[in-house]
Give the backbone structure.
Amino acid sequence: MAGRNGAPSFVDVAATTFLARRRHHRRLRAAAVRGVTDADLAATPAPGDAERVPRLSVVVMIVGSRGDVQPFVPIGRRLAERHRVRIATHRDFRPMVEDAGLEFYPLAGDPHELMDYMVRTGGRIIPTHLGQIVEDVPKKRAMMAEILASTWRACTEPDPDRPDAPAFRADAIVANPPSSGHIHCAEALHVPLHMIFTMPWSPTSAFPHPFARIDPGRNRPVQNFLSYGLVDLLIWGGIGDLVNAFRQETLKLPPIAFDDGAPLLEDHQVPFTYLWPAALVPKPTDWGPDIDLANFIFHEQAHAYEPPSALRDFLAAGEAPIYVGFGSVRVEDPAAITRVILTALDEAGARGIVSEGWAHLGGEALPPSVFLIGDCPHDWLFPRCRAVCHHGGAGTTAAGLRAGLPTVVVPVFGDQFFWGQTVANAGAGPEPIPITRLDSATLAEAFKTCRQPPMRERARALGARLRETDGAELAVQSVYRHLPWQAMRCANDSGHLATVYCDTCGVRLCRECATTAHAGHPVHPYGYVDWSARPAHGLVAELGELLGDATRALQAGLGAIIPRGGAHRLR
Ligand SMILES: [Zn+2]
Ligand SMILES: [Zn+2]
């Protein structure tokens, strides 16, 4: 942060002041809106407290690829120990969800098409070529409108593909940010919302938004911070009209002003859990108590895997190999990449296991020191390797680090640059090599670096720390910690879910206790959370925001004792 001559520059001073004020402001808001302190949130729940929570119907909505959906399966299973849990995601993933014993609901959208679009736009939300605007955007927008509509059905309708499916109505929503309908459905239902994601999505000065195309290796706190608002704005600019149509036509909610749409999650301090460990990326100091870190969540498959004998023979025939694979990423010229990989392995004197994936890296005649592999569980294969080289997807990065392996990241788009830099910062791998700069000499050098004892030792130590905690368990604890239980429990029995408010007695009740113990008393439908408040804007924005917070604080404070809105607002 210092200028070349050691004295802080004007920009540095302005940046520091801006960020300090911002942090202070956020703490004030967090305290005012939620009425809780960091200490309250850090406190472990009393033993047995979790048993006294009402049984909820929880919808978990996820838009993304297989790697985005997988972590939610163990989370869903843990939540399902006490609640009815429905995983709402793309149709492709129904078997994965149902095989885990969880309920499924199909969201619209095709994960392959989403992935393809991301690659062709280089991870930018906004396409860069005119051709893409003409061809892709209407199609992408149509898909987004379908996804939005399906998020509401996921909260309120029975599974359309199972004729005998029971009715469903969400009492709480867990979601990843790309599922887009989350906060609007939560507003319509007056239910709590909890976000879970694998990559940073909350403004911080510590690192840039993974989609912002700012080099994560540079220390630029203000740019980092502003990149989150910028990405939010780009996304809102692209889909805001679709979201407002969804709100008005499907949810019967008023539209959102342009200024309010982009920072919606942040303005409401929606609780977030990020699925990486603090041992790898510590929680930034400008993230408030509404944000928790958990750990990576692993998709365990090794126990059920029977390796082909050719693979066993290859592994037994020499030194542990380097794994090279690009997961579900599509590359432009698979044959050229294959040649680069084979040459680099040869130059580094290393044996290799090369994964085909969707990238179809094969097709060349392979030397005996290289084995081409199809689907193989990472938790089986990686412990048998000496290093890994991949695209830097969150799931593959996590699997390599957990196995304690030095990691070479070749990022293609989106958060892969973030993970590549994170691995390098942790000393568990060389600097990432963007795929546009990939050549055999650079890759061979990276492979050689992975042989050096200090890097191997750091990777091994990091792996041991990642294995210490269970990411799914931490994520579920985080969800429980942020649920507004006080507002959700029946006054007669904290194990009942309150759905009405008795005017005569001034208490929240479940429907059954209201009819038995409060017969003849006037009751209102009861909502738990009011997501409809919007911050004020204008010339005195800071003051306006503080006033908005006071209003919300009042609502939050009163939320525990009076019903929200009228019956016309509640469904
Ligand atoms: Zn009563
Ligand atoms: Zn009750």
Summary: Residues 490, 492-493, 496, 509-510, 512-513 surround zinc ion (ligand 2) (CB under 6 Å). The domain at 47-295 is CATH 3.40.50.2000 (Rossmann fold). The longest helix spans residues 221-250.
